[in-house]
């Protein structure tokens, strides 16, 4: 709750709205206690007294009634009616929306078509019709305003409920023996309340205006009772001669609605989970670079060589060291595997190369990435843009999320081709078809006009690969490209990638958590843990004789086909949080070979530069491995 | 051995393109009639690729979906009640995504109490005693009870999901991809915990997964599903080592294994059969090297081979390799 107020207070305008609204509500509550004149006593001798006159601070109206008193009582009434209408509309609308969304099917269809019919009327016409049917009066105006706003709530809440009703925790509640009514009350409702509050906070202002509108037309509060709308209505005839009688209620309406709307926007921003992290700002086109240490010199090996790369995420006052000094290099035609668990920094390393880490909160704080001798870290956006896709291309895990659902795969491929090579569209289309053929999509001439949803997961990933190949890149960075695919499809995609690198001399950086995939595809492999490489070298060496205890134990706890039923050697504990890394070895707390020396100082990656390099002072040897 | 669970001709059709009145435009047979026996204390692995109907089958088994035909018997008694609460006392479900199976606005204690209160009507004291017992069994600390789901890692949340399933005191657990959302080092922790709980509480597992290696490591028997039908059932150590159905063979050959050279076992560009327009005869026919005219006539039935493995194929592989 205090977090909510802190977020709200960050928005200055919302805070101003909150203060103004608080004052107005306080005055409205205190009105009966204040020494005010009776708002309904007429005194025609004193009619149209100007503001600041004796005994009437804001003057008097056409019947000589005290305007200040009428304003206070009128505000009190308008606020009460507006809030009451909002609460009624929200309660009924939410109830309708939850029932329609939760039960779905025919119930949903019947209810929502009814709501659609209500929405088809202009709202003021509908309100007028309701008041006409029930007769004028403040209560009936309240009913009309509430009824008019029910569809808005019903539609909003239904949409949210549909999403929640299909969540697994609702199924779990059913299996726990809960009835539908109880599931709605205890599982669904708590999850839609924030949405109801957001919808209410942004509509209360409207409802006050609508009530005032009906009163202005003489359909709401009846004389002599004052509310803001009826005060305006009565002052209309004297608008030119005595403008203060209209200005006074008009200014109050302005103040109230402005304050509520500002406050409502603030409440929405503070409650909306998507905006909660404060990430309202748009990410920059390239990752921020803030290197304090001198940039390392290029070592002249490799097509792409990464030296001492460090990437951090800075969220509020915490610093997450996602990548803490990574060295990698890759040669043409070579496949380098990066293996690690989630949070080990393998994806952030890959994204840092081309400045694709979202900033804020990502910052590259050290190191360099040399592509053919030029440092990519800190390169201007135009340079990176001309390299992205053209020389270094990415393939991502989820092909459905990387392809735009509203364009055909052909349109997207043609765009990828023309982004770097301005060619006529027809020519680009021919190229796109040949790309689809090169990733062995059957019937490429027809499939080019398919939308992503019309293709299977394997076919979509082939399109993703075709797009990466569009500009004949030198390097492809593939981030878990087969994790979302079935095994039979995975085998096809892997052999496709393998053929492509042999035919075209592509360098591939392949990120995965699967040792089987690494063994089959990669020449060299780097194992990452807590943002650093703990072991790297030729794939055969590492898989046959892992030197780092983490590598060895990670391999032991993954079941492998053909080994039959067995107890797996699990690694106890969890990887450390990268905002609070221990001194020395990050794996020490989970390691069975840990010694006091492991925790005293930073451990370097050591070993021959062309062989197996390991970040461990007590590496596994053949004998210790046998006993472990 | 006594039977824990018997499925007889269980199937599920989904209407596609529903109209306000009249029949739907088409029907998808998500699960073809499935007949399976599960013995008490056994782990039956169910493998298949996405869209093969394994999750639909699981949801029928716990009563979240109504079968179109067929019956479920638990411990010899038919289950003809559609009430999930009746199912809940006998058969429970562990979900794939540990975080989204916990209501973000409830504390762990509230989540754990639901099955105890609604399925067993326990008093507050009995509930907290039982929760303490279960939490000890799944290696969770009691101070977690007053926290909210977002404070837990995937592995911890999955332990809570397992604890909730145990609280219902059901003898059969359906584990629907229970470790596929977890990191590899945490996977092994959860798999070992499941093995311990099985012996401790005498449970029967149906372990659903797309990961052949995981299924092989935990199961006694494995059933392979393809296009909504069981195509092979056999002992875990045999099914992938000596596959009898050509599809099982394809699966086993596709799995990446250290030390085996990379090859695409299926060179042809094939796509799964279209559920809206299912092929006649064997659904695997178009991808199968051994297909004959007979395969195009009628779908083969699941039949027991001399070595005890059940295969739905007219031309089962010899199992020599």
UniProtKB/TrEMBL annotation, chain A:
<keyword id="KW-0067">ATP-binding</keyword>
<dbReference type="InterPro" id="IPR025966">
    <property type="entry name" value="OppC_N"/>
</dbReference>
<keyword id="KW-1133">Transmembrane helix</keyword>
<dbReference type="Pfam" id="PF00005">
    <property type="entry name" value="ABC_tran"/>
</dbReference>
<comment type="similarity">
    <text>Belongs to the binding-protein-dependent transport system permease family.</text>
</comment>
<dbReference type="GO" id="GO:0005524">
    <property type="term" value="F:ATP binding"/>
</dbReference>
<keyword id="KW-0812">Transmembrane</keyword>
<feature type="domain" description="ABC transmembrane type-1">
    <location>
        <begin position="75"/>
        <end position="264"/>
    </location>
</feature>
<dbReference type="InterPro" id="IPR003439">
    <property type="entry name" value="ABC_transporter-like_ATP-bd"/>
</dbReference>
<feature type="transmembrane region" description="Helical">
    <location>
        <begin position="188"/>
        <end position="209"/>
    </location>
</feature>
<keyword id="KW-0547">Nucleotide-binding</keyword>
<feature type="transmembrane region" description="Helical">
    <location>
        <begin position="12"/>
        <end position="34"/>
    </location>
</feature>
<feature type="transmembrane region" description="Helical">
    <location>
        <begin position="77"/>
        <end position="103"/>
    </location>
</feature>
<dbReference type="InterPro" id="IPR017871">
    <property type="entry name" value="ABC_transporter-like_CS"/>
</dbReference>
<dbReference type="GO" id="GO:0015833">
    <property type="term" value="P:peptide transport"/>
</dbReference>
<feature type="transmembrane region" description="Helical">
    <location>
        <begin position="115"/>
        <end position="135"/>
    </location>
</feature>
<keyword id="KW-0813">Transport</keyword>
<dbReference type="InterPro" id="IPR035906">
    <property type="entry name" value="MetI-like_sf"/>
</dbReference>
<dbReference type="GO" id="GO:0005886">
    <property type="term" value="C:plasma membrane"/>
</dbReference>
<keyword id="KW-0472">Membrane</keyword>
<dbReference type="InterPro" id="IPR027417">
    <property type="entry name" value="P-loop_NTPase"/>
</dbReference>
<dbReference type="GO" id="GO:0055085">
    <property type="term" value="P:transmembrane transport"/>
</dbReference>
UniProtKB/TrEMBL annotation, chain B:
<dbReference type="InterPro" id="IPR017871">
    <property type="entry name" value="ABC_transporter-like_CS"/>
</dbReference>
<dbReference type="InterPro" id="IPR013563">
    <property type="entry name" value="Oligopep_ABC_C"/>
</dbReference>
<keyword id="KW-0813">Transport</keyword>
<dbReference type="GO" id="GO:0005886">
    <property type="term" value="C:plasma membrane"/>
</dbReference>
<dbReference type="GO" id="GO:0055085">
    <property type="term" value="P:transmembrane transport"/>
</dbReference>
<dbReference type="InterPro" id="IPR027417">
    <property type="entry name" value="P-loop_NTPase"/>
</dbReference>
<keyword id="KW-0547">Nucleotide-binding</keyword>
<dbReference type="Pfam" id="PF08352">
    <property type="entry name" value="oligo_HPY"/>
</dbReference>
<dbReference type="InterPro" id="IPR050319">
    <property type="entry name" value="ABC_transp_ATP-bind"/>
</dbReference>
<comment type="similarity">
    <text>Belongs to the ABC transporter superfamily.</text>
</comment>
<dbReference type="InterPro" id="IPR003593">
    <property type="entry name" value="AAA+_ATPase"/>
</dbReference>
<dbReference type="Pfam" id="PF00005">
    <property type="entry name" value="ABC_tran"/>
</dbReference>
<dbReference type="GO" id="GO:0016887">
    <property type="term" value="F:ATP hydrolysis activity"/>
</dbReference>
<protein>
    <submittedName>
        <fullName>Peptide ABC transporter ATP-binding protein</fullName>
    </submittedName>
</protein>
<dbReference type="InterPro" id="IPR003439">
    <property type="entry name" value="ABC_transporter-like_ATP-bd"/>
</dbReference>
<keyword id="KW-0067">ATP-binding</keyword>
<dbReference type="GO" id="GO:0005524">
    <property type="term" value="F:ATP binding"/>
</dbReference>
<dbReference type="GO" id="GO:0015833">
    <property type="term" value="P:peptide transport"/>
</dbReference>
<feature type="domain" description="ABC transporter">
    <location>
        <begin position="5"/>
        <end position="252"/>
    </location>
</feature>
